[in-house]
Amino acid sequence: MESRVLSGATAISGVPRLRKPAARLGGSAAFFPAARPIGAVADGGHLIWGRQLRPAILLEASPAKTLKPCLAAASSPSEGGDSAGDAKIAPVGFLEKYPALTTGFFFFMWYFLNVIFNILNKKIYNYFPYPYFVSVIHLAVGVVYCLGSWTVGLPKRAPMDSNLLKLLIPVAVCHALGHVTSNVSFAAVAVSFTHTVKALEPFFNAAASQFILGQQIPLTLWLSLAPVVLGVSMASLTELSFNWLGFISAMISNISFTYRSIYSKKAMTDMDSTNLYAYISIIALLVCIPPALILEGPQLLKYGFNDAIAKVGLTKFISDLFWVGMFYHLYNQLATNTLERVAPLTHAVGNVLKRVFVIGFSIVVFGNKISTQTAIGTSIAIAGVAMYSFIKAQIEEEKRVSSV
């Protein structure tokens, strides 16, 4: 549809006379009387009318002198003219018609895949305690999945250059370190305890924002983190599966993911999240392979693989490694896609509920015995994370509204 900018109109005997159009932008035409745009375009901006205009531009004009524009229906190039009649309206798909139902399905799949991953991951460590190698498998399966998706064009691979690579390497290194240390903790202690310790991640994020990035953290946020620290301390003191390797590894994972967040802010890019996560996974895989070969390679070749195959069989061993890697990649990808669809407050609720689901299901599935103090401490820590997330989400929403 052609768009034109008109300079004004004058009336002769009550009939408006249109002046010549000041600009020609396309094939067919629509004419307008004099109109004074208001808002952002009132200060000398161009008035543009088209099918893809968002948001609508309001015009101040006398009702008697307003000529409504004609909507051009789609026409073939061979016709060369405007088509009269109503504009064609594209049919609304199921996803657009029921957005809440779609978002709920995304949340369900995110939680489901996360719980399955944690349960299967821990079962593997019960007969194959090699977290560095398993971490490599997690990333390797995801990388193969990404390469296959790129091959069929779902999604189309985004281009990579040296500048973007330099920005993504620190993010991927921190991602690799945080992933490996999380798995070391999962192999050493109960899944519920690792997730309880990892509830301290907001505390490290706030500390890094305050003292590294120089961002001022409100006092209310710091106060909301006090229950988190108290709850994790209570749970750690009485956790039956506690050992220092599991605890320290979970703490290193917290620090690593905190720095990943810092470097991610510096590596902001227009690349979509699916491609971005794929590139980060590839780099992280290359980072994880050397320590796995150095620290666990000799044991794996000597007796690690043979012991696992003797316990569960070759078919189950290979299938377990494949599926745990697939669940790891899919739940991370679903988490990214889900959180892109919701507001910050819903994001906060989703993250808190996810941790509650994982802790609860791991206790039920593995039958871990926990003391009353551990249960109370875990509950206090989760409540503190929820409080912190809600306050932070409200602050971010206020900043967004004020900036708009």
From TrEMBL:
Entry keyword Hydrolase: no
InterPro entries: EmrE-like, Sugar_P_trans_dom, Tpt_PEP_transl, TPT_transporter
A GO molecular-function annotation: phosphoglycerate transmembrane transporter activity
Coiled-coil stretches noted in the UniProt entry, renumbered to this chain: none
Transmembrane domains' residue ranges: 98-120, 132-154, 244-263, 275-294, 314-331, 352-368, 374-391
UniProt keyword list: Chloroplast, Membrane, Plastid, Transit peptide, Transmembrane, Transmembrane helix, Transport
UniProt main location, coarse: plastid
Residue intervals of the Sugar phosphate transporter domain: 103-389
Subcellular locations according to the entry: Plastid, Chloroplast membrane
A single cellular component GO annotation: chloroplast membrane
Keyword presence, Transport: yes
Domain of life the protein comes from: Eukaryota
Pfam families reported for this sequence: TPT
UniProt topology in membrane: Multi-pass membrane protein
Name by which UniProt lists this protein: Sugar phosphate transporter domain-containing protein
Provenance organism: Escallonia herrerae
